[in-house]
């Protein structure tokens, strides 16, 4: 009788265990099948504005048919951080000075070629010259850290939150870039462009420190005149960008000069360098030099060399006493590439530029951390997007970069799972690591092995990571610290995590353990009672 009762108790307990396990059994074995890999975001294609359009001298498209024949004295200034535009007038007579040129600076970047001054003769030797007008006339710059090429910048700018336009420019002091007006302002696409970033000496498609030897800087103020922003006049297609850091102290900068209309520097050899993107990729710097140009009028400089889309905003410079000085800003050319023209630095433009440079104080030193992605997760999981709580481990390899002008002793890198594509510190934290000693312009590879903690319920999740998730580091920009991997992980439950998190499982486990511990004692007691002799 007692044996029968004991068997019923044990049998009932086993049945309860099997019933409780039944919801989790499919989850345990589902991860062994080749499940469909789910991505919530397809790669976002960068829709570049046609490079041929940015150099197209068609008045109906970009320009006002009635050309402005005098300098505009109405200044248009856009504050990036506040999103406010200020319009004011100036008196050119009041700001005029006897200065006719701003001096160049070779920079202090610690490069093994630094200090080897590139004079005009040696530049002529290394630059390609050709009797045929076309892309072959351009020569790639293989060391973009050699002055003056170190001062040449690649510019990216966004508009309508969906498109990115690419152009070129040049550093003209520690924190200012000279470029074409249409690189940063286009009246046909909403006016001022957003998220304008400047990359000196860019050399390749990636955003690593090897391809971006000086890192990058961001626009804080952009200026032009109503000659461009209101009239869209090719004669006044120019702009100056104020940057968030003194990156020019490392890159160096070109000098700027204004010369008389009959000066022979306009017809002598003129040099330019930028990032052509019509027949070429736009990721690499190219240069060309040639004589034979001339002034179309007081405001426009006609070149005798080939230009194409992507070179908009490049500086065209001459050499005086072996030092480079900007004469004009490359802005236009025929569709598909050809002979180019640019906006001349007139006396008024020079005085205005000099005024802006004096007005802007440099920003306080700050870091600017960004984090890139990892493509090894899916391969490490055997190309199955299923992971089990507590048991599945997978590696994450990522890169943390410091685009600021001050080093960071240490920064926290947090890894998160989110139910949507918006990764925030409020999502499920699956781990953290500390990245130490991130110097200026340095990129650090970070290896981390992650697993899903008990705090994450079963389901589908985006995975991503955030550098400095608690905003402990003062940065130029706080909105570029997040990376969303794009892989959607299917998190499965297991018996172990159910035992530890589910009250029913926990109670059954305690009961089972108690039975296992008590059962032998009960059996011993029963046996002893059986052996005890009966009393008469």
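^ structure tokens above, recovered residues below v
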């Amino acid at each position: 009788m007692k044996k029968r009762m004991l068997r019923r108790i044990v049998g009932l307990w086993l049945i309860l265990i099997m019933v409780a396990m039944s919801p989790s059994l499919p989850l345990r074995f589902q991860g062994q099948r080749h499940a469909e890999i789910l991505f919530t975001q397809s790669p976002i294609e960068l829709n570049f504005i046609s490079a041929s359009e940015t150099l197209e001298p068609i008045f109906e498209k970009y320009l006002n048919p009635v050309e402005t024949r005098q300098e505009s004295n109405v200044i248009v200034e856009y504050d990036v951080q506040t999103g406010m535009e200020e319009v004011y007038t100036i008196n050119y007579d009041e700001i005029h000075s006897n200065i006719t040129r701003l001096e160049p600076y070779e920079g202090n970047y610690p490069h093994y070629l630094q200090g080897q001054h590139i004079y005009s003769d040696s530049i002529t030797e290394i630059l390609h010259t050709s009797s045929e007008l076309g892309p072959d006339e351009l020569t790639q710059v293989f060391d973009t850290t050699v002055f003056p090429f170190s001062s040449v910048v690649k510019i990216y700018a966004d508009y309508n939150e969906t498109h990115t336009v690419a152009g070129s420019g040049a550093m003209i002091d520690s924190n200012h870039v000279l470029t074409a007006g249409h690189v940063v302002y286009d009246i046909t696409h909403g006016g001022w462009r957003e998220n304008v970033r400047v990359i000196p000496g860019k050399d390749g498609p990636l955003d690593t420190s090897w391809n971006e030897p000086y890192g990058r800087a961001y626009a804080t103020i952009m200026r032009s005149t109503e000659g461009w922003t209101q009239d869209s006049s090719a004669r006044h297609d120019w702009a100056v960008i104020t940057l968030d850091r003194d990156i020019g102290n490392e890159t160096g900068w070109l000098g700027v000069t204004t010369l008389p209309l009959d000066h022979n520097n306009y017809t002598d050899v003129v040099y330019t360098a930028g990032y052509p993107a019509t027949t070429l990729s736009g990721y690499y710097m190219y240069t060309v030099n040639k004589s034979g140009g001339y002034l179309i009028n007081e405001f426009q400089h006609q070149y005798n060399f080939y230009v194409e889309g992507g070179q908009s905003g490049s500086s065209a410079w001459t050499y005086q006493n072996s030092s480079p000085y900007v004469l004009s800003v490359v802005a236009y050319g025929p569709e598909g590439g050809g002979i180019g023209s640019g906006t001349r630095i007139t006396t008024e433009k020079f005085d205005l530029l000099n005024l802006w440079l004096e007005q802007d104080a440099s920003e306080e030193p700050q870091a600017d951390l960004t984090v890139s992605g990892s493509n090894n997760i899916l391969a490490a999981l055997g190309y199955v997007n299923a992971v089990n709580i507590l048991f599945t481990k997978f590696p994450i390899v990522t890169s943390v970069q410091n685009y600021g002008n001050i080093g960071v002793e240490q920064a926290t890198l947090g890894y998160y799972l989110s139910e949507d594509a918006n990764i925030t510190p409020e999502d499920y934290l699956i781990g953290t690591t500390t990245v130490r000693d991130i110097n200026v312009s340095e990129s650090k590879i970070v290896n981390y092995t992650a697993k899903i903690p008990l705090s994450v319920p079963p389901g589908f999740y985006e995975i991503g990571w955030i550098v400095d998730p608690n905003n402990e580091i003062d940065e130029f920009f706080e909105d570029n610290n997040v990376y969303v991997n794009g892989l959607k992980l299917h998190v499965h439950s297991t018996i172990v995590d159910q035992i530890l998190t589910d009250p029913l499982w926990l109670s059954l486990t305690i009961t089972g353990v108690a039975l296992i511990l008590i059962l032998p004692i009960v059996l011993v007691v029963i046996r002893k009672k059986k052996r005890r002799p009966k009393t008469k």
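The first strand starts at residue 38 and ends at 39.
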